[in-house]
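Hi W.,

Here's what went into the run:
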Amino acid sequence: MPISGGETVAGNIRNFGGGFLKHVKVVMIEVTADLDKEVTKNMSLTDHTIDDLRALGHPYSEKRWGSTGMAGFHDPYWQVHKQSGRLLRSKDSGVIGPSVAAGELTVKGYVRLNEVDVEYANAIIWGNGRMIPRDFLSGSVNNKDFQDRTKSYLVKNLRDLVLNFKGVETR
Amino acid sequence: MSPELKVLEKIRSVLINDTTVKSYIKDRAYMEHISSVDRPEYPAISLHLMDSKAADNVPDLTAMMVQVDLWLPEKTHTSDDVLTLYARVRALLHRQNLTDTSIGVTFGQILESATGPVMFDETNGCRHLPARYRITAI
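Here's what came out:
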């Protein structure tokens, strides 16, 4: 069945003016700033130096957690230590949109790393032969407290929206 | 047996019973992350339960995220091999209706949700391709 009315909705949004789109952008900037803060927290542990971790046998595998009774060594497990600060410096965030197409308004907020500057970023997020994946980017996005807080803020500020939380995206 | 273990066991069974997958890894589909396996042999696939929780609105339904990692030694396998194996694994898992009455598990859904880049892992000399699947099962 053909879907009609999309152009009307898009037209109404445009007619409503740039003010609404600006409002949407401001709301998403706020949400993205909150996510950025969470991700920054996830990658800023300072309770162990690299020497401490080496002495502990680099305890980031399920086997080591279990065998050394270190379950919950870091809770949540995806949090990582800040060492040189290189990883943290490679992080940035932003907002794409809003844009209106076929009657739908879309706006996206993101927090990302520059994997060219920090070549080991993927090994942390996806794991390697000695370490389970510790996805400090998606960890907060999938966290229920963050989702509830964000949802509440968005519903309060933007009614009738469809909300999607997405973790790591590479394609 | 927990729902999570049943899910991992079913995925493992699907993979090692496929001719194409078997031609690459034989029966080396480990049910824990490769970093937790004592002296793992390669090529291999490892399954890693990332998180799991009871579904909000359906009794006995569990929602979980599983990472499926492909590990193929660089010396013996090309990037094409990695992508061929990846495509086969995805065809076997993504959006499939998986059920196993012998262990009592039925998948509500299994969807590929993210895929990493093909990486070279210096710790084991393998080409590594991870993919995450969002799963509900009962």
